[in-house]
Write a structure and sequence with these properties.
By secondary structure, the protein is of the alpha/beta class. The protein has 2 domains: about 10-250, TIM Barrel (Alpha-Beta Barrel); about 260-320. The chain is built from 14 helices and 11 strands. The chain has helices at about 35-40, 55-60, 65-70, 90-100, 115-120, 130-145, 160-170, 195-205, 220-230, 245-250, 260-285, 290-300, 300-310, 315-320, and strands at about 10-15, 15-20, 25, 45-50, 55, 80-85, 105-110, 150-155, 180, 210-215, 235. It has an 8-stranded parallel β-barrel, surrounded by 6 helices. Strand 6 (about 80-85), helix 4 and strand 7 form a beta-alpha-beta unit. Helix 11 runs antiparallel to helix 12 and helix 11 runs antiparallel to helix 14. The longest helix has 27 residues, at about 260-285. The structure holds flavin mononucleotide (FMN). Flavin mononucleotide (FMN) binds near residues 27, 51, 190 and 214.
Length: about 325
């Protein structure tokens, strides 16, 4: 759906859900829980998408999945929950549960390249199975009554454009409210250049809003991709890790980089939320992957990074952070 000349700060509608701007937090497995999404929201994200959640785990009411991955904070709306799976009946049931949990939209994962996911027929395997992809999208909408979007790759292997065919089918027969294209093939994982020209062609051809993901590390990268593709919105993924300020920069609300004190205060906020989410013990272990992102921003050396990652308690983490304020 070709965009009339619009800015990243303009509001828009995705399947009837009002989105206040065109800057979106991408789904990030193992990371995009409610507090990471809330953080993106505090810095201006117009829409936040959850990490991918197994439709089977939700359907079978896996206790931890439902309690932790379907947890939605009242201040993070509009929020989309991303599901993955290959069985339309299971997808419909999971989607119903996701709607009951309070999601505004459902996104379906058709791009995950991880063999464990693909070998079940889910994720990027669906790029080779357009009939099933359409059935899953319809089932998610029927089960939830919510608008459904799909995030997909351009293909599975170099030179393949299976994703383009699936995108067309999803827009024509799958009744999707929108699509997000990550224009790298699945075998590239997250490396290599993103093909924005391909996204532009889909934006012009398809009757639904098309968003772009891939290679948006800086505000300038995201602005350039938004212009080059004409996409309805941009998804920030790795560029946003430990860098919620990117949302503000992209929305023109901030031009400078954060001061050290601001970064340390932000890590404190993350620590508090993680304890609220997981309890002190699990939070201590869970947060270890977060520290390298912030240490890089703080400009501190590998010694601090190592110390944070091996700190036995969050009190130690806080004390270490104070040393570099
Ligand atoms: C750690 C990590 C986890 C990811 N998890 C998901 C996921 O759960 N669902 C999904 O559709 N994409 C996932 N992706 C892909 C991102 O949403 C995004 O499309 C990709 O990283 C390309 O954007 P970037 O180059 O700006 O990072 C993940 C990427 C990374 C790096």
């Amino acid at each position: 759906m070709k965009r009339v000349d619009q800015a990243l700060t303009d509001d828009w509608s995705l399947g009837g859900v009002r989105i206040p701007n065109r800057v979106v937090l991408a789904p990030l497995a193992g990371i995009g829980n409610w507090f990471v999404r809330l953080q993106a929201k505090r810095y201006g994200a117009g829409l936040v998408v959850s990490e991918m959640v197994s439709s089977f785990a939700v359907h079978y009411r896996n206790e931890r999945t439902c309690r932790e991955l379907l947890r939605i904070h009242p201040d993070e709306h509009p929020v989309s929950v991303q599901l993955f799976g290959h069985d339309p009946d299971v997808m419909a049931s999971a989607a119903e549960r996701v709607a009951a949990a309070g999601a505004d939209l459902i996104d379906l994962n058709m791009g995950c390249p991880v063999p464990k996911v693909c070998k079940t027929g889910a994720g990027a395997a669906l790029l080779a199975d357009p009939k099933r992809a359409v059935a899953l999208a319809r089932a998610a909408a029927a089960g939830s009554g919510l608008p459904v979007t799909v995030k997909l790759r351009s293909g599975q292997r170099p030179g393949e454009l299976t994703g383009v065919n699936v995108a067309r089918r999803l827009a024509d027969e799958g009744h999707v409210a929108g699509l997000c294209i990550h224009p790298r093939v699945a075998s590239q994982r997250h490396a290599g250049t993103a093909d924005y020209q391909l996204v532009r062609e889909l934006v012009e051809e398809l009757p639904v809003p098309v968003l772009v993901s891939g290679g948006l590390r800086t505000a300038q990268d995201a602005r350039d991709a938004f212009e080059a593709t004409g996409a309805a919105g941009v998804l920030l993924a790795r560029g946003s890790l430990g860098n919620p300020w990117l949302f503000e920069q992209l929305l023109g609300r901030r031009s400078c980089e954060p001061e050290r004190q601001e970064i340390v205060a932000e890590v404190d906020w993350v620590l508090d939320r993680a304890v609220e989410h997981l309890g002190e013990d699990r939070a201590t272990r869970y947060l270890r992957k977060f520290y390298p992102w912030y240490v890089e921003r703080l400009g501190c050396g590998p010694a601090l990074r190592a110390a944070l990652q091996t700190a036995p308690s969050l009190a130690d983490v806080r004390a270490l952070l104070r040393t570099c304020e």
